[in-house]
Design brief:
15% strand, alpha/beta, 239 residues
Length: 239
C-alpha cells in the first residue's frame, strides 16, 4: 500500500521522461517518496524538485543489468512503451520487444528480488498495459504487444505460488487515451491520470482502470475473471 511509511519508500518509474512518467514523478515527490527514474533518453539528467531523485539510463534487452538498482525499490511502475504507426515488420518486432517482453523481464526480475526481500513490507509492481489490450487503438502492432503483456501479467498473477504472494503485489493499470507525445489527441490529461493512479492504487484491487470508455470497466473485469477461472482449472489439473 502506498500510504504507509511513505517517507521510507522508494518508487521506480520506467518511462519517467514521458508525459505520464513526469506527472507520476512530480506527484510521488510531492507526497514525500524517493523516486528513481529509468529512461532511454541521453538528455535526461537534471535533478530538481519535479524530477526523480536519481536518473538511471537503460537499454531495452539489458534489463538484467538493472538488478542492483531494482533492489532499492519498493514500488516499481512499468510505464515505458512505444506507439509506432508504421507498417514495417520491424515495428511489430520493436513493439513486442519494448511494450511486452521488456516489461515481462522487469516483472520476473522484480519477483526474484521480492523473494529475497527480508522486509515485512511487500514489494509492489504496477504495469501499465492500456485498454488497447482488448479494445481497438487503430494501431495493430500496439494492440498485439499490449494484448501479449496483458495476458502474460494475468497468467503470472493467477499462477503465483503462496510464498510469492506473501512477498509481491502485482497491479495492472488499464488506461484510456491520455495526451502525450505519443498521442497528442488524447482525451485525458497526464496530471489527471497520475492522480487517479495514485488514489486507486491504495486499494486492494488488482485492476486500476482509468478511462472515459464505460465498456472498459465492464470488459476488463470479465476478462480477468475468465483468466482467474482458467488458471484455477490449470491448478486443479496439475494436482
Amino acid at each position: 500500500m502506498i500510504s504507509s511509511n511513505k517517507n521510507n519508500k522508494t518508487i521506480g518509474i520506467t518511462g519517467a521522461s514521458g508525459a505520464l512518467g513526469k506527472e507520476l514523478t512530480k506527484l510521488f515527490r510531492q507526497e514525500g517518496y524517493k523516486v528513481i527514474g529509468f529512461t532511454h533518453s541521453k538528455t535526461e539528467s537534471n535533478i530538481n524538485i519535479d524530477s526523480p531523485n536519481e536518473w538511471i539510463k537503460w537499454e531495452c534487452g539489458k534489463e538484467s543489468a538493472l538488478k542492483k538498482h531494482l533492489k532499492k525499490i519498493d514500488i516499481l511502475i512499468l510505464n515505458h512503451g512505444i506507439y509506432d504507426l508504421s507498417r514495417e515488420n520491424s515495428n511489430y518486432e520493436n513493439s513486442i520487444e519494448i511494450n511486452a517482453l521488456s516489461q515481462f523481464k522487469f516483472l520476473n526480475l522484480f519477483e526474484e528480488i521480492a523473494m529475497t526481500n527480508e522486509s515485512i513490507i511487500k514489494k509492489e509492481i504496477w504495469i501499465n498495459t492500456s485498454e488497447a489490450e482488448i479494445l481497438p487503438a487503430l494501431n495493430p502492432s500496439y494492440e498485439i504487444s499490449k494484448s501479449l503483456i496483458g495476458q502474460l501479467i494475468s497468467f503470472k498473477k493467477n499462477l503465483l505460488n503462496k510464498d510469492t504472494r506473501k512477498k509481491l503485489i502485482i497491479k495492472k493499470i488499464i488506461l484510456g487515451p491520455f495526451k502525450s507525445e505519443l498521442n497528442p489527441i488524447g482525451i485525458m490529461s497526464p496530471k489527471f491520470v497520475s492522480k487517479k493512479i495514485y488514489d486507486l492504487a491504495d486499494s486492494k484491487n488488482y485492476l486500476i482502470i482509468i478511462s472515459p470508455n464505460p465498456l472498459t470497466y465492464l470488459l476488463f473485469p470479465l476478462k480477468e475473471f475468465y483468466n482467474f477461472l482458467y488458471c484455477k482449472i490449470i491448478y486443479k489439473y496439475k494436482s
